[in-house]
């Protein structure tokens, strides 16, 4: 787990002694890389007594076509500006171009945060 707290170095390069230990709200986590495949969801607790649903893998996308939405299957990732290697590994992130049953669509949701894939059909 990575600490998201204050730096242990001063701007002069000197050492800053910790006044207390780490707190739970300072912990970070690795990003969820949602893959194309058999649907798998994971529930994690977050601040404010709420939960988040992370999509570990999914094969469904809700695509907006001319003002109406349709649920289609995701076949593969065509392009991903976040990381070119994500295309090879079929990882879906926001902004990725995916090949669906309706055609090529751009992902508008964050599957690792929302637990679902929403997309808009590209012209």
Automatic annotation (TrEMBL):
Residues 7-26 have a biased composition (Basic residues). Pfam families: Ribosomal_S8e. The keyword ATP-binding does not apply. The lineage of its organism: Archaea, Methanobacteriati, Methanobacteriota, Stenosarchaea group, Halobacteria. The gene is rps8e. Keywords: Ribonucleoprotein, Ribosomal protein. It comes from the Archaea. It comes from Halococcus hamelinensis 100A6. Part of the 30S ribosomal subunit. GO terms for cellular component: ribonucleoprotein complex; ribosome. The keyword Phosphoprotein does not apply. InterPro entries: Ribosomal_eS8, Ribosomal_protein_eS8_arc, Ribosomal_Se8/biogenesis_NSA2. Residues 1-37, 102-123 are annotated as: Disordered. This is Small ribosomal subunit protein eS8. Belongs to the eukaryotic ribosomal protein eS8 family. One of its GO terms (biological process) is translation. GO terms for molecular function: structural constituent of ribosome.
């Amino acid at each position: 787990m990575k600490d998201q707290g204050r730096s242990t170095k001063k701007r002069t390069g000197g050492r800053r002694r910790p006044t207390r230990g780490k707190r739970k709200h300072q912990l970070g986590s690795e990003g969820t890389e949602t893959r194309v495949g058999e649907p798998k969801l994971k529930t994690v607790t977050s601040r404010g007594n709420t939960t988040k649903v992370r999509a570990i893998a999914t094969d469904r996308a809700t695509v907006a076509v001319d003002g109406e939405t349709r649920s289609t299957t995701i076949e593969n990732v065509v392009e991903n500006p976040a990381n070119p290697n994500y295309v090879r590994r079929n990882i879906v992130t926001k902004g990725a171009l995916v090949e669906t049953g309706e055609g090529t669509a751009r992902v508008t949701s964050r599957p690792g945060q929302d637990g679902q894939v929403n997309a808009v059909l590209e012209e």
